[in-house]
Amino acid sequence: MDNEEREILMQKFAEANRKLLLANEKLEAANNKLKEYEEKTAKAEKASRMKSLFLANMSHEIRTPLNAIEGFSRVIAETDSSEERMKYLEIIESNNNRLMSLINEILDLSRVESGEIVIKKAPVDLANLCNSIQQLFKFRCPDTVALKWSKPTMPVMMNTDENRLTQVLSNLISNALKHTPKGEINYGYELIDDGQNIQFYVQDTGAGIAPEFIGHIFETYASQDAQQQKGYGLGLALCRIIVEKMGGHIEVQSKLGEGSKFTFELPFHGSIGGMSTSNRTTTNVKTLHLSNRPDEKNMKTILVAEDEESNFELVRIVLQKRYRLLRAHNGIEAVTMNEDEHPDLILMDIRMPEMNGLDATRIIKEVNQSTPVIALSAYAFDENIREAMAAGCDAFLAKPFRVEDLIEICAKYIK
Q: Which residues are CB-contacts of 410 (< 8 A; sequence separation ≥ 6)?
């Protein structure tokens, strides 16, 4: 074989090697792509399973309190014993609170996941906040569980969103209560990193978390509670999203049978050791009972624009002993009755037939700017409140409302 033939053979060999390398690279890329697809498929299947489990337990969690509310609402109407009625009323109220808590968490989760959550900062006395949380859980803790918080020696004021901070701590304490049948739950805060950051914590002596689940504890649809039929598993996911929105991060340490400790860190902006500028006062809770019934001839008039019979009936029962009530079934009637009756206050539903509450409010305010209008609506997102205020409403009260809040807001605008 001469040199020329050898050279041609070497070139062919090199070309074959080059093609083999390219083929191997393509095969490796295809294998990597296949592996990636398999991982994505596995994740999608897992997410689908968790969502199905989540929805199944969501249905269970919604239907359970609804069953009690519906059942005892019928029973309470058929009993003559005032003692039994109070007992059934407490059961209905307890299940109503449970249902409202679930609905609020679902709505909150949808808002924060879509980026609608807004952090509103203001100076907050952390000692007052922690005391308020202890009062909030005072009657929710069983006798076998002690809820404690460690108060620092120096007062701390923090510029933060009080509602969101309370929500995170409350969710963590609620989670601890669910897994601590007896023992202690401790919570509090401490400044770290030379005061650059602040760490909040909730520690319990409960059942603890399995090691294989800790890495997924804050995922939206991954809920150990859901798998064990113990809850709906939204609280911890909400905590993570809110804490991250506030510029911090959240972690958990746990041992099975020994308990768990949740901590979250936030950037600290505030003062230490200064005098508190937050003066909180407690107000007496108003009830449906009146010590002195007002003179019916001198009663102030409230126009209630509400198309739903049950909603109007509730307002009527709450306010009928305090005010003279008029009823409008839609926005057109509200405008007409306002011109004829000149009420002292208008409670305005937003979604009504013929004419909605916003359009009715605009017309009413054009006629008489001084007539106070309070929006009373189940559409209670931030944009709904902004639209109501832009239309001329003086205040906004979301449905379902607390009886005390309705009484208080009416008294505020009727002098």
A: 302, 319, 322, 323, 345, 347, 374
